[in-house]
Design goal:
Elements lengths: L11 E2 L3 E4 H13 L6 E2 L12 H12 L7 E5 L10 E5 L1 H12 L6 H10 L1 H9 L4 H12 L15 H9 L1 E8 L2 H14 L17 H4 L5 H7 L6 H15 L9 H9 L6 H18 L11 H12 L9 H15 L7 H8 L2 H13 L6 H16 L2
Parallel strand pairs: 3-5, 4-6
Antiparallel strand pairs: 1-6, 2-6, 4-5
Helix pairs in contact: 10-13, 11-12, 11-14, 13-14, 15-17, 17-18
Length: 393
C-alpha cells in the first residue's frame, strides 16, 4: 500500500506576539555583531537577497508613516550551538524589514512627490516641533517645503520626520508569528508562502513567476533592449505587469487601466490562452522583439501609457511595428505630446492647435484612453482612432 505524500511540512506555530520596530532592529544588529540575547538573522540561506524596487519601498514607508498595518512577519526560532549564532531567522517579511531598516538606519530618501504628500499630511507635527524648537533636521526640510509647496524637490528621510512620527514608528508593534521546525521543513514552508503572498507593501510581482503565463513573457528576446530603445525609466517588473495585463485584455478578462490586484488575481489563476489570445500575444511579442533590435537616430522616450499603446496596437493588429517602425514610434510620441494640452487649454485654444474640431475630438479620445479604466468596446474604438492618427500622412 502506497503512503500519501506529505504535502505540507511539519511546523509548530506559536501564538502571534508583538514586537516594536525598534526592538526588531536591535535584534538584527545583534545578529550581525554576533552579540546579544536575541539575535535575528535577516537573510538565512533559503532567502533571496534584496529584491524590491524603490516604488515598493516607498509604498511601505508611506504605509508606516501613515500608521497603516503592514502585515504579519514569520520568524523561525532556532537553538544555536554557539552564543554568537542567531537565535531566530526571518522566514517571511525580509524585504519589508530591509526597507524599514534602510529608512531608519541608513538614510533612505523618499521621492519629492511622496515627501510632499507626507509633509502636507503632518503639518501639525512639524508645527509642534517648530513651536518647541525640536528636531532641527526636520525643521530645515519643512522650511524648504513651505517656500514652494507644489514644486518642492526636498526628499524626506527618517531624520527629517517630525519627532512624534519618529517615535511612533520606532514604537510601532509588528505582529510576529514564531515557528519551530527543521531546516528542510522551513525551506518548504518558505516556498509555500512565497507562492501565496499577495500585494504585500506593493510587492505585486512575487506570485507571478510560477504562472503558465510566464511562458509567453519569455518569448520576449531582449526586454532590456526594448526598454533602452523606448527610453523607459520604469522597472523590468513594471514591464512584466503591463505585459500580463495585455494577456488579460486580449482574452477579455481584464479592462485597460484595471488595478494591480486584478492583474495578479487573473495571472495567478491563468491556465491557457485561446487561439485568438495566442494570435494577439504573438503579434505583441513580434513588435517588442523587433523594436528591441532597432538602430535609431536619437532615442524616443516613452511613458507607461505609450508602452500600453504599443502593446495594444500591435496585439490587436492595428499597427505592424515591424515595418517603418521608427516613423510610427515617433508619430506615437508626437500624439502623446499633443494630448497633454487637454490638461492645459480651453476648447477654443485646442481647436486652434489641432486645426479642426474633428482632429481635436480624435485626440481627446486618445487623451481619455490613457486615463482610467475602459470597457472593451470603448477601448477598441479609441485604439482604432489612435491607429488612424498614426497612419495619417
Amino acid at each position: 500500500m502506497e503512503h500519501a505524500l506529505n504535502i505540507y511540512p511539519k511546523i509548530e506555530f506559536e501564538p502571534v506576539s508583538a514586537r516594536s520596530i525598534g526592538n526588531i532592529l536591535e535584534q538584527i544588529e545583534a545578529a550581525e555583531r554576533k552579540f546579544g540575547i536575541e539575535r535575528l538573522d535577516l537573510q538565512p540561506s533559503y532567502q533571496r537577497g534584496e529584491a524590491w524596487e524603490n516604488e515598493f519601498k516607498e509604498k511601505l514607508i508611506y504605509s508606516l508613516v501613515t500608521h497603516y498595518p503592514i502585515g504579519n512577519f514569520v520568524v523561525r526560532k532556532v537553538d544555536p550551538k554557539n552564543t554568537d549564532e542567531p537565535t531566530a531567522e526571518v522566514v517571511d517579511g525580509q524585504q519589508r524589514l530591509r526597507t524599514i531598516r534602510e529608512f531608519i538606519k541608513n538614510g533612505m530618501e523618499l521621492s519629492p512627490n511622496n515627501t510632499r504628500h507626507i509633509v502636507r499630511e503632518n503639518r501639525d507635527a512639524y508645527e509642534y516641533d517648530k513651536k518647541y524648537n525640536m528636531n532641527e533636521t526636520g525643521q530645515k526640510l519643512y522650511q524648504k517645503f513651505l517656500k514652494d509647496e507644489k514644486k518642492s524637490n526636498v526628499k524626506l528621510t527618517f531624520a527629517s520626520l517630525p519627532s512624534t512620527i519618529q517615535k511612533r514608528i520606532l514604537e510601532h508593534n509588528l505582529n510576529i508569528i514564531a515557528v519551530r521546525c527543521d531546516k528542510e521543513s522551513i525551506s518548504q514552508y518558505f516556498r509555500f508562502i512565497q507562492n501565496q503572498e499577495r500585494l504585500r507593501a506593493g510587492e505585486i510581482i512575487n506570485s507571478i513567476p510560477d504562472s503558465p503565463a510566464r511562458d509567453y513573457l519569455e518569448q520576449v528576446d531582449n526586454k532590456d533592449g526594448f526598454l533602452k530603445i523606448v527610453g523607459w525609466d520604469e522597472s523590468r517588473k513594471e514591464f512584466d505587469k503591463i505585459f500580463y495585463s495585455m494577456i488579460g485584455i486580449f482574452e477579455n478578462k481584464l479592462l485597460l487601466g484595471t488595478t494591480d490586484k486584478a492583474i495578479i488575481d487573473y495571472i495567478s489563476g491563468f491556465q491557457r490562452l485561446s487561439a485568438t489570445g495566442v494570435e494577439c500575444v504573438n503579434k505583441m511579442v513580434a513588435a517588442i522583439n523587433h523594436i528591441a533590435n532597432l538602430q535609431m537616430d536619437g532615442r524616443v522616450r516613452f511613458n507607461k501609457r505609450l508602452i500600453k499603446f504599443i502593446f495594444l496596437l500591435a496585439g490587436l493588429g492595428h499597427i505592424d511595428f515591424t515595418q517603418e517602425t521608427a516613423t510610427k514610434l515617433k508619430k506615437l510620441c508626437q500624439i502623446n505630446e499633443d494630448i497633454v494640452w487637454f490638461n492645459k487649454e480651453t476648447t477654443e485654444e485646442l481647436e486652434r492647435r489641432f486645426g479642426t474640431r474633428e482632429s481635436m475630438e480624435q485626440h481627446r479620445e486618445i487623451f481619455f484612453l490613457g486615463r482610467g479604466s475602459h470597457a472593451k468596446k470603448v477601448m477598441e474604438k479609441r485604439i482604432a482612432i489612435l491607429s488612424r492618427l498614426i497612419t495619417l500622412t
